[in-house]
């Protein structure tokens, strides 16, 4: 026999151990929640802190003379003739304008002239050319332009590039940063909000400062349209059949097992399906929003079906019975009474399904959406049909940028993720508001 | 004719016919009733709906069937149908439907029943999409995988320990290193996610007050809604360099930012909400009477949880873990960005390794030639992945359904 302590006021050894175990267990639980929260916080801060810079951009304000002798040799202001002058002819204009500005401000730089010109982005010459071609009247005068600065200079003003890192970098030098700093002090260089990040198309590997999300946002939008138009009716029809009409037999069992399996199939397998069926077999165009939308539709269908069935199930049988009692057919009871009552739930499920589709990447890689796309896709073209022109999508653009060498693209990728998360946040908020607004208890 | 060839002509004509049928059938029913619609077996509106659907449904169905024939035909070396034929056949089907429906609308015609049959056939057609998708998934992979195994010995594929694709031929395409990478990363992810997720679920359902639960549960669920590319980028720019600088290099285990550990940890974070919300539901389903019984015998709360609730909820928890495992095995973007692309069999968690999904992506992106085994291997990999995850999912469902305790 063990001797038990007789006092109620003194804890014996065993009780103490048990209580200590209790405290440890609780601490483990709290720790687990802490780890999850910490992970979420780290994830968000890491993405936001490295991506917020993409929304600001450094511009150099220059007054550029446009000599007619160089830009319009024929003197006719004919756009076709002027288009023969390539961007290579425009780059020196920008450089000379900058050199003149540097001299005018009395800044003494130890750099060579071409190195000073190097702080202007290569993109700026193309922008200037487009501007001149669009407005031929400008030739002969001077134009004031905000030229994009080169990616490293831009990084310097956002804190990404320092004098130490520039010393090791072949693409820039501490002297260039110094020059940029003195230009900024004189008000020639400034950093401000970057609309073109949201509207411009992608840019080549050499010029992260010019890369934007425009095509990706449009491509994602087209795909979401396809998903919405296809997945919502098919999903709702499937759910209505399974929930309201299907007899309990092999066929409906098969469909049901199938749907729960499809919900758990890895997304990349849907990409293989898209490649084999839609591209190799049906010969639809690679990288088109149509194929992307079709693949994502098949992927999100199970999500929409599962949530729609839950919404239909939550409508009480008394509603159906009441409709049937006044002489409605089964079909009428469903379409006139059950479906309107289930609509908010269906909508919520659809939005969540769309949000899932918006963030999906892997299947889109397989259908070629990772390709470099510079042109805005048209919604309809004679050659490619509806949504058939090559586009890219937000998450794929992120992946594309992470694969590039220039460190400026990491900032762009994180910026794109912030944009993606904002879209998702808005969608989820709408879903939650809808649920709140229409929530009904019977 | 050029107008008819555009994409829009056919749908516009079919819809016009459908509307014509709708108006025609309605008018004919009204006329037949002689002004007193009570004489009709169905309302004029139902006649209209029936006519509309009798034009639309057969037209769409015939268009789909003919397009399929047009796609398959040239592959067998014969051009069976031209676009013109499809156009006129579909139009004829629509016109027949239109005329038939108008002619049928008489006093005794039960148009509502007829239109509901159309609607029901549409509902059934929609629900077969899920089955067609599954068939499409399996067939698309099976066909190409068969092409692959005709060119490459299956024994070499399943049992070789070397993965060295070479687009000039003579590749070694053994799945074992990829399988090892997949399982190793999944193991690390689960070793992180299962304890964290389970403890979080226990705390939230047993200890936390309503306010804490109201805040923590949605926050954890946010983790499930974040796209995997975000986790991939997180692995690439934060966790990878962190692990390399503070663990791998000081310990002398490697100098690569992309490693099994990076991908595993980040994937673990992604899996936390899967484990926690499923376990949470299951723990909540354990009846209060069982807890009360345990307390009545003098057990502390943690003892009740460990000895009563967890055993009762175990099948459900195992099911949740299996579902999380199949997620981990099929996950792509985190490993593409976090784990690297080197196929090797190694035990060092700080080395770069690769998985089945990564190789599917890398074999199928870029210039692909669908005759070479180096490309076709992706389909065999996909099929293997599909079979593995399918088995896990089915097992999880069976365990949850069969062994889950049923309380009153």
TrEMBL record, chain A:
Topology versus the membrane: Multi-pass membrane protein
GO cellular component: plasma membrane
PROSITE patterns named among the record's database cross-references: ABC_TM1 (PS50928)
Compartments, record wording: Cell inner membrane; Cell membrane
Keyword annotations from UniProtKB, A to Z: Cell membrane, Membrane, Plasmid, Transmembrane, Transmembrane helix, Transport
Domain of life: Bacteria
Annotated ABC transmembrane type-1 domain residues: 217-431
InterPro entries: DUF3333, MetI-like, MetI-like_sf, Phosphate_PstA
Biological process terms in GO annotation: phosphate ion transmembrane transport
Predominant subcellular localization, coarse grouping: membrane
UniProt GO molecular function: phosphate transmembrane transporter activity
Signal peptide: none
Record-annotated membrane-spanning stretches: 23-44, 221-242, 262-282, 288-312, 338-359, 413-434
SUPFAM superfamilies in alphabetical order: MetI-like
PANTHER family noted in UniProt: PHOSPHATE TRANSPORT SYSTEM PERMEASE PROTEIN PSTA, PHOSPHATE TRANSPORT SYSTEM PERMEASE PROTEIN PSTA-RELATED
Family membership: Belongs to the binding-protein-dependent transport system permease family. CysTW subfamily.
Descriptive protein name: Phosphate transport system permease protein PstA
TrEMBL record, chain B:
Main subcellular location: membrane
Residues covered by the ABC transmembrane type-1 domain: 179-396
Membrane topology: Multi-pass membrane protein
Any one GO CC term of the record: plasma membrane
Keywords from the UniProt entry: Cell inner membrane, Cell membrane, Membrane, Phosphate transport, Plasmid, Transmembrane, Transmembrane helix, Transport
Membrane-crossing segments per the record: 51-73, 85-103, 123-143, 178-202, 222-243, 255-275, 376-400
Annotated InterPro entries: MetI-like (IPR000515), MetI-like_sf (IPR035906), Phosphate_PstC (IPR011864), PstC_N (IPR022182)
Highest taxon in the source lineage: Bacteria
Subcellular location: Cell inner membrane; Cell membrane
Gene3D superfamilies: MetI-like (1.10.3720.10)
One Gene Ontology biological process: phosphate ion transport
GO terms of molecular function: phosphate transmembrane transporter activity
Ubl conjugation in keyword set: no
Role played: Part of the binding-protein-dependent transport system for phosphate; probably responsible for the translocation of the substrate across the membrane.
NCBIfam families with a match to the protein in the record: phosphate_pstC
Family designation: Belongs to the binding-protein-dependent transport system permease family. CysTW subfamily.
Protein name: Phosphate transport system permease protein
